[in-house]
Amino acid sequence: MSHEKVFDNWGVPSLEAVLDARERRVARKQRLVETYNANVIAFTMNIPGPVKNTPCISACFFSGIEALLIYMKEHDLTEVEEYLLSTGPEGYFIFPVTASQWAVKRKLVTFEEDHPIGRWFDFDVMDSTQRAITREEIGAKPRRCFLCHDSARNCGRNRSHSVEELVAYTEETLNNYLQMEGKGVFNETSRDFSAGSK
Ligand SMILES: [Zn+2]
């Protein structure tokens, strides 16, 4: 199945554009559930700071898709749409209604936790009744902060880290990851993702 690809630009999006994008993502998921009569996964990047997409962020996104398709091989995922927007890259996948949406969500949470840059990955699952599957209902812990061991929610609320600090850490980690991946370190050191990812 071929999938649709859309690209706009790398500019800094307005707050309005970011909020708009959030609404459009929900609408896209609903449309895909209806079109394919399937469960839907939306893959986005979790990027602190005003800039939501760069060549580096997109490269990490594509690398994430590659690793995801290998990791989720037995779950029969099909990528159907891809958007490289100033508000961030978005990838949409469908999987059969006969599969357990909770098992898939559980595995995606493990992927987010185990992949070297999984903290910057975000996978939303919407089932074929258009219901979002939450981390809470599958018994997963809330997401950790980028920098410390507290929850992201606590650090966000307490403003424990400056945006500059979070942005610098993100750039450093994502760039290092791409470099390592180019050298093959990613393949050799990461047990769970070694099955042919490159
Ligand atoms: Zn923190």
From TrEMBL:
Q: Which GO terms describe its molecular function?
A: holo-citrate lyase synthase activity
State the source organism's domain of life: Bacteria
Q: What is its EC number?
A: 2.7.7.61
Which portions of this protein are annotated as coiled-coil regions?
Answer: none
One Gene Ontology term of the biological-process aspect is: prosthetic group biosynthetic process
The UniProt keywords, alphabetically, are:
Nucleotidyltransferase, Transferase
Asked if the keyword Transferase belongs to this entry, the reply reads yes
Catalytic reaction(s) noted? apo-[citrate lyase ACP] + 2'-(5''-triphospho-alpha-D-ribosyl)-3'-dephospho-CoA = holo-[citrate lyase ACP] + diphosphate
Official protein name in the record:
citrate lyase holo-[acyl-carrier protein] synthase
Species name: Sediminispirochaeta smaragdinae (strain DSM 11293 / JCM 15392 / SEBR 4228)
Q: What is the lineage of its organism?
A: Bacteria, Pseudomonadati, Spirochaetota, Spirochaetia, Spirochaetales
